[in-house]
Design goal:
Endo/exonu/phosph_ase_sf; alpha+beta; IP5; phosphatidylinositol-4,5-bisphosphate 5-phosphatase activity; flat; two-stranded antiparallel sheet; 118 residues
C-alpha cells in the first residue's frame, strides 16, 4: 500500500499535487490529493471506517471515507468494497445501508452523514 501511495505521489507531484490524506481498511485504500494552491482552503477533514465483513468485525469488506470542506463546500469521498456476484446482491445492499447509517462525522453539524454532503 505504501508503494501505491508513492506511485501516485510520483505521478502527481510534477503537476503540483500533494497528498492530503490516506485512509485504509485492510485492502481498501483511499488517497486524496489536492493542488498545492488549494491547500490553504481545506478545512474540517475527518475520516470514517465501517467494517462489514464477518459479523462486522473483519475489514475485508466495508467502506472508508474522508469528509472535508473546500471553499465553503462540504465534500465526502467514499471507497467501498462489498460482496461480489449477483447472488450476493442482498448482502451488498445491506452493507451499503450499514455504511450510510453508521458512518458519521463530528466536525461540522450540518454534514454529519455521508448523504448530507454536497
Amino acid at each position: 500500500i505504501n508503494n501505491s501511495v508513492e506511485i501516485f505521489r510520483t505521478a502527481l507531484s510534477p503537476h503540483d499535487y500533494v497528498k492530503v490524506r490516506t485512509v485504509r481498511l485492510v485492502g481498501i485504500l483511499l488517497n486524496v490529493f489536492c493542488l498545492r494552491k488549494h491547500l490553504n482552503y481545506l478545512r474540517n477533514m475527518e475520516s470514517a471506517i465501517t467494517r462489514t465483513g464477518l459479523m462486522g468485525l473483519w475489514g475485508n469488506k466495508g467502506a472508508i471515507s474522508l469528509r472535508l470542506e473546500i471553499y465553503g463546500v462540504n465534500l465526502c469521498v467514499v471507497n467501498a468494497h462489498f460482496a461480489a456476484h449477483d447472488h450476493q446482491n442482498k448482502q451488498r445492499i445491506n452493507d451499503y445501508n450499514t455504511v450510510i447509517r453508521e458512518q458519521s462525522f463530528t466536525v461540522d453539524k450540518e454534514s454529519t452523514r455521508i448523504l448530507y454532503h454536497e
